[in-house]
Design a protein that fits this description.
Shape: globular
Number of helices: 8
Helix content: 25-40%
CATH class: Alpha Beta
CATH superfamily: Peptidase S8/S53 domain
């Protein structure tokens, strides 16, 4: 999967830097997982603890899986893109909730608060592998203001495009600062269930989201799919490029990813992530 999006060469250069803080707004994480034991995981208070209380819960399974893509040990079953970056876990999914672990959801108000908390705690990048439920004009305004705040401070926001198989946008994926991520198969073809849209096609990317293996909360490996799985591939790529250029601004890093993937024509389908090309643009090569 890392070869498909040209991550392997970048991963050979760096495993990240601790000063590159990645906020993960998601479920709690099984922090005692043997393949996460040596990573730089920090906790932010949320409506639940950042460590799993029930390893079988959808929230714990999802949070641990996404954390594995970003921060597992190199050589583990997970992609383990940026293990030496600091992972800031901000849980918004309740372990009492039932349902599929494919894409848990959060209210706009909860999500806005979590984004602001991550920014205040020093996150340079925030990964949103989730959907928004019970939307209201008040909630959407709070979320837009949080995304506007991230843009002003240069905190890069990477968000899952969603798994409803629709063409359109949300307050998140339509925001001009957000990198929305669609999911693709092992050949780079967009998944039928992945949301697409004009803003997703213009400013977003697509990344592996079919049959991806990462960490299970019970200590075994797990295979899942969807845009929740695709988003951390982009987040991890951004974190690695920033680790190589720690003095760069968020706007400079984001621009490098835009230039690397510019196609010059409108489409509802975003281009496939090319992490090495983004790194070359960032370094001026």
């Amino acid at each position: 999967m890392t070869d498909l999006v040209n991550l392997r060469q970048l991963m050979s250069l760096t495993s990240g830097r601790s000063e590159v803080v990645v906020g993960m707004v998601d479920g709690p994480v099984a922090a005692d997982h043997p393949d996460l034991a040596q990573t730089n995981i920090q906790e932010l208070p949320g409506k639940t603890g950042a460590a799993c209380a029930q390893i079988s819960s959808a929230a714990c399974v999802h949070g641990t899986f996404v954390a594995g893509i970003l921060s597992a040990k190199r050589g583990s079953a997970a992609p383990a893109i940026c293990p030496d970056c600091t992972l800031l876990v901000s849980p918004v999914f309740s372990e009492a909730a039932t349902g599929s672990a494919a894409q848990p959801s959060s209210t706009p108000e909860e999500l806005a608060a979590a984004i602001l908390n991550c920014i205040e705690a020093g996150a340079r990048i925030v990964n949103l592998s989730l959907a928004v439920t019970r939307s209201s004009s008040k909630g959407e305004r709070a979320l837009k203001l949080a995304l506007d705040h991230a843009a002003r401070l240069g905190v890069v926001i990477v968000a899952a495009a969603g798994n409803q198989g629709t063409v359109g946008g949300t307050v998140i994926t339509s925001h001009p600062w957000v990198i929305a991520v669609a999911a693709c198969d092992a050949n780079g073809k967009p998944l039928n269930g992945s949301n697409l849209g004009s803003s997703i096609g213009l400013r977003g990317l697509r990344a592996p989201g079919d049959g991806v293996t990462s960490l299970g909360a019970d200590g075994r490996s797990l295979t899942l799919g969807g845009t929740s799985v695709a988003a951390p591939f982009v987040t991890g790529a951004v974190a690695l490029v920033w680790s190589q250029l720690p003095a760069a601004s968020g706007a400079q890093i984001r621009l490098a990813f835009q230039l690397a993937h510019f196609r010059g024509r409108a489409s509802v389908t975003p281009p496939l992530l090319d992490a090495w090309a983004a790194y070359q643009h960032a370094t001026g090569r």
